[in-house]
Structure formats: structure tokens, C-alpha cells
Amino acid sequence: MSNACDLLSDLLLPEDMAMPHGPSTSRDFASSDRCLVSLPKADLHLHLEGAMRPGTLAELASTYTKPMPQVDSYRSFDEFQHCYRAVVKLIRTRGGIRRLVREVVEDAAASGVVWIEPHFNPTTYAPALGSAEDVLDLVLDAGTAAGRTLGVGFGLILSASRNRDPRDATALAGLAADYAGRGVVAFGLTGDEAATPPEAFSEAFVIARDAGLIIAPHAGELMGGPSIRSTLDALSPDRIAHGVRAAEHPALMEHLANEHITLDVCLTSNRILGVVKHIEEHPLLHLLENGVPCSLGSDDPLLLKTSMLTEYQIARNQLSMTDGQLAAIASTSIQSSGAPAELIAHTLIGIADWMKQVFPDPAEGHPTVPARRRTAYC
Fold first, then answer.
1. CATH number of 2-23+37-373: 3.40.30.10, 3.40.50.2300, 3.20.20.140, 3.30.460.80?
2. Any idea where the Adenosine deaminase domain is (predicted)?
3. Could you tell me which of 169, 170, 247, 322 has the fewest CB atoms within 10 Å of its CB?
4. Can you tell me the distance from the alpha carbon of 162 to that of 331, in angstroms, rounded to the nearest whole number?
């Protein structure tokens, strides 16, 4: 892997992670020149049910004669969670789960994603669809099969909920530990940050860490620095889902940077759920300037009307991030993941190849980018 990392570092300057408007170098071309679909990337912040296709949601609601969950706007985080639970209740068969997983992998591939780590809790569907182990096997088999066909690696984050008894989290961590090395790559914590303090879940996370799993809880989304600090102290995370409120606290940013703790950032989610009023106010660049490693994630594409490609487009078009900065974020995403070493190395080479693309100077009378790259989805 070191050779791939060296190749990428030869093409990226340190300023690619630090400068709001990117480096002043001939290696970084016009921001629209490189197709974002062809940039290999990982999605580390994705909730499986929240990535259901709108058409699938409508079909399931019709099948079970249930009101169509409204996925347009949310007046509060509670309302958002209520909508998510309504989506979950429409998944009632093993075939429905297989379809969900297959379509999530297909949509990831369409965004140029080479590795995904969906958050998932199999106990949600037990015992109705079998034991938690049965459900977990079903999801892993479906994800692996679809990924093999489409070239997308698939690993799961088993995520406990702050809204449930911490003893449930401990049991789930035991299940995650049993599946370490068999498709489960991380252990997370979701739900309302105000519901239960992270200290209540420390036993679960000790079990997960001892099993070699990545520790990736949610924190620092709707609550500020104290939520992040308590999560750091109680759970010792490798990554934090969201975590963007750390930008308000220099000492927290310094800690995250020094400890190489990655924030799995979701731009659209932060805007829609009120973390920021406008994308242009998002602290992603400020975090990067302070050395905090960040990936981009899609969070809940169904509920937020987004995709991984859209998140990278927003970073490019609304945050004015350069291709060098986007490549650095993609590199962070795969290196912070639970992907196999061979896939990580291959992805880093792909990112380096993406950065090596050279386009003629328009001043010389040549097109900036080949016509085949002038596609709406790039």
C-alpha cells in the first residue's frame, strides 16, 4: 500500500487539504475538467434503509397499503427519525431486504463508489425475518454478491441506538465481534445525541474494539463540542459520523488532527437538518485547514434527496473545492475504511491516475476536456 500512497502524495500538495481555493499549481486543472464519477471513493456514512430508492419506497407503500412516508422536509430531528422509522416498517420480507441491498450497491456504483460501509442493525428485523444472525447473513450475502458484480466492496457498520437500552448495544457488540473478519468492519452509535450519554455505551465499544472493529459513533451533529468530547473520552473512536461541530473548538480540532480521527461529513444532511443554514457556511474547509481528516458521505439519500456524486458536486461547485482537495478527501475515505488492503491500494492508484489526467490549454485553441467527459453527471 505504501507505493500507492507515495504515488498519490507525489500528485497532491499539502495545500490540497488546507487551502480554501486549492493550490496554485499546474497539476490542478479547471475544476470541471475531471469527471467526478471516475474518482474512486468510499462512502463511510450511509444508513442502509435511508438509501432506499424513492420508487422502491412508493412500491412498498402501495403493496402494504400504507401511507407514503413524506420525505420532503423536516421540522425537527424527531420528525426526521419518525420518517426513517416509517421507511423501516415497510421492509417486511427477506426478498425486500435483498432488493434494498442490491439497489444500494447499484446506486453507489453509479456514483463511482468502490467501497461502502452502511450503518445497519439486524435486530430491527428479528425475529420476524429470522434471528439477528440470519438477517445479518442475508445482508452480507446480498451486499457481497451485488458488489462482486458491480465492483463495489461491501462492509457493514453494526450500529446501536442511543434511543434503546444500552444493554441492547452490548449484545449487538457481541454479535458484531462474532462477525469481525466476516463482513462486519465497524461498530457505531446512532440516534439522538441528547437521548443517552455515550458513557452508557462504553462496555459495548470495548467489546467491539477488542474484536478489532473500527469505532465509528455519531457525535457533534446537532449537539456541539461537549458531545464530541464525551464521545472521545468514553468511546475512543477511530472515526466520527458528522463531528462537524468540532470546528467551533480549536482544541477539539487539534485533537482530531493529532489522533488522525476521521470525520465522515455529510453536506446535504447538515443543511437540511439545520446544522448549517447554507452550504456555503459549512465548516468542512475550516476543518481541513486545521488538519482534521474528513471523508464525504451521503447519509440518507432517500430522505435527503442526495447521492455520493451529489455530495462531491456540492463540494466542488458550492464550496469551491479543487480537484486536488476532492482527491485528498477520496483518499482519506478509503484509507479510513475497513476495506481490504488490496482494495485500498488499488483505489489509491486509481485516485492518483485521476489526478494525472492532463487537459490541453484552451488558450492554445484546444478543448479543455474531451467531449466524452462533458456529461451532465460529471
1. 3.20.20.140
2. 40-343
3. 170
4. 31
